[in-house]
Each structure stands twice: as structure tokens, then as C-alpha cells.
Amino acid sequence: MKMKKLLFTASLLATSLLFAGCQSTNDSENAAENEAKKEKLEIVTSFYPIYEFTKEIVGDEANVSMLIPASIEPHDWEPAAKDLELIQNADALVFNNENMETWIDEIQNTVDTTNLAIIDASEGIELLPFSEGAHEHDHSHEGEAHEHEHDHEGEVHEHDHDHEGEAHEHEGDTHDHEGEAHEPEADAHDHEAEGEAHEHEGHDHDEHGHHHEFDPHLWLSPKMAIKEVETIATELMKIDPENKEVYETNKNNYIQKLQELDKAYEEALANVTNKEIITQHAAFGYLADSYGLTQVPIAGLSPDNEPSAKQLKELKEFAEEHNISTIFFEDNASSKVAETLANELNAKTAVLNTLEGLSEEDEKNGATYISIMEENLKVLKDALK
């Protein structure tokens, strides 16, 4: 009897150990499965506005990094070897437009894109042709509000570009994403090759850098920013369907804020006395086009370009003719030319932020795309009233 009891106890113990082992294995498998589910998407963005748009969409559900630091002019930046490595290990690369990030062809030709989604935020948006500056500007349309035709969202806006040539419809390429998310990379990147000149297939270069066929500064118009946010969100939901609902909710909440910003611009600029703005470089074409203003740039699409004596003479005559009292420049570039022109006109200067990067002070103050665009609107209202 005692022997039977011992055998039963041993059998019970063995069975318990067996179940415990199975449970331990199941717990380990479940933990590994949960960990895999928690692994976040790795998204690399080009520069500040695209970074912020993407962060607003994904929230805490993905890791988002930025290639171009605030101290570097995006028009001049080129990817270094470590940047290429970062992109190669990412799940998605989000950029503004090939006319801004002129190195995007190099990425597509250098990096294995099998498991990399390349997202063009400007896909489907009709781009404005590039204008060199005041000497090429047709003033016959001054003060008129312009309406665009944009196919991107099904919205139809008629736009007459007498002064800009034939309309261009931009089509960006998106890539299907396959594969698993990667482990997060370190945030610090060595930009040892920044500013170095490179040759790119399909892009013309002159002594000032890349040649731009179309204006890439879409983000400086809240209307265009909304379209870019929608495109980024749509593409991210394709490659991360598990977080689709979160992305959709975040996108809608952010777009509501952008729509309020857009409305503020429309109301504030609808009845201003002056409609012409002289800017340091041709960065505010979409803003002007969206809200019935006329941009007259001192230089071209890069703030580093300097106008000729003839251009300065024409700018002075234009400013005097239109009673322009403020010359706009950017805080991330030299204000020398703007100040020279302002002195000749007995005008003042004011900063319009291009949002190509946040300054240290902006970061400390918790500045955002929306808060800086609100400050830009205040500056415009004061100058154009």
C-alpha cells in the first residue's frame, strides 16, 4: 500500500513538472511573440517639417529620426556613409520632394529598397515652377488670389498661372514594404560628409549647387502641409496596418489643427492693404499662392544665392512703386542683402521663418511647426496692414 502511494506521488510530481515545463515554454513563446508585436517601426525623415508631420501621425507607436540637423541648410546637405546605413536599416524613409532632397536618387540607386518604403510627401501635389527672382517676375497678376488644381484629395481648385508657365503635376513613387521592423539605432549620427558636393544622375548642377526645376517649399503653406500629412499617413498605414487606427486618429487630430491655422491665414490676409512681399529667397511661393499674395524673392530657391546689381535695382524700383515698407529675411541665413535693400528704401526688416530646422532657442521654448507658422502670420500682418 505504501509502495503504491509512493508511485502515485512520484507520478503526480512528474506530471506537475511536465505541465510546468510546458507552461514555461508557452510563457516564453508568448513573451517573445508580444515582444515582436511591440517592436516599433523605424522611420527616417529628411528634415524638420517632415519629421514633425511624421511624429504627429505615429505618436509613440514608431521611432522617428531626422537626417538633416538644424544647423545645416537642407538645400546643401548630402548623405554621409552613416546616413546611408541608417536609411538601409530603416523601415521607411519620408522626404518632402526631390527638388529639395536632390539626393533621393542616390538613395534609391545605392540602398537596397527591398524592405524600405520610400515616401514622397509631395505625391499628387501640383508643384509651382521655379522662379529665379524679381527680374523674372511678371507683375501683371499682383494682388490677385490664386486657386490651384490639386488632384491629391479629390479637391478641385482652379488655378491660373499666367506668370508661371504650364502647370506641372508631380507624381511620386511609393514602394511596398516587406519585412520586420529593425532594432532602434543610436540617435547620434556623424555628418562628416555634409555639404560635400556630389553628382547625381538626373540632376543638373551649377556653381551654386543643385538646379531646381520646381519650387519644393510646400510646407510653408498650411494648405499644402495638410496634403503632405495626409500622404505620409496613408503610406505609413500601408506598411504598419496594426497601428492604422492610431495613425488615422492622430492624423485627423493634427489636420484639424492645421485647418485652424489655414483659416487664420485666410482671415488675416484677405483684406491686408499690401499684397506684395519681398523675401530673401524664393521660399514662400506656396504661401503667397494660397493666400492671394505676390512673392518677389531677392535671390533664387537657395538663401545662399546673391542678386546682381541689376536685380537689386529692379527690387528697389518695385518696392518704391508698391510702397513696400518691410523686407523679409530668414534667421538661418545672412541678412546682409536684405538689410542693404531696406536701408536704401528706408524700410525695416523682419524675419519669416522657413522652418527648415528649429534653433536651439526654439527647441528650449517648445516651438512647433504650428507655433512658428503663427508667428510668421503675425509678422506678415504687421508688415502688410
From TrEMBL:
- Ranges for region Disordered: 134-216
Give a GO biological-process term: metal ion transport
* InterPro entries membership: AdhesinB, Bact_metal-bind_prot9, Lipoprotein_PsaA-like, ZnuA-like
Write out the coiled-coil annotation as residue ranges: 244-275
Q: Which Gene3D superfamilies match?
A: Nitrogenase molybdenum iron protein domain (3.40.50.1980)
Q: Which UniProt keywords apply?
A: Coiled coil, Signal, Transport
Q: Which GO molecular function terms does the record list?
A: metal ion binding
> According to the UniProt entry, where is the signal peptide?
1-20
The answer to whether the entry has keyword Signal is yes
Q: Which family is this sequence assigned to?
A: Belongs to the bacterial solute-binding protein 9 family.
Q: Which PANTHER family match?
A: HIGH-AFFINITY ZINC UPTAKE SYSTEM PROTEIN ZNUA (PTHR42953:SF3), HIGH-AFFINITY ZINC UPTAKE SYSTEM PROTEIN ZNUA-RELATED (PTHR42953)
- Recorded protein name is Zinc ABC transporter substrate-binding protein
Where is the organism placed in the taxonomic lineage, from the top?
A: Bacteria, Bacillati, Bacillota, Bacilli, Bacillales
